[in-house]
Amino acid sequence: MNSKTKKELYWIEGILLATFITGVLVFGDALWDGQPIDIQLHDTYFVFTKTLFLVVVFIVLFVMVYGCRAAFSSSGIILKIVMGILVVIVIGTLIIIRSAMYRLRQPAAFMASPPVEERWEGKFSRAKYPSDKYTIAYDTIEADSFRIVLIVAVESDTTFTQTGEVWAQRLVGDSVTQKCVGSIDSEVGVWVPDQQPIPGMFMTVEYSEYGGKINLVGKQGDFIEIPGTLYALDVKDRIYTAYVNGHDTLVHEYDLRNHRGTNLDNKQFLRNDLTFQQAGPGRWLYRQK
Question: What is the pLDDT of residues 106-126, one digit of tens each?
Answer without folding.
Answer: 444 344 444 444 444 447 777
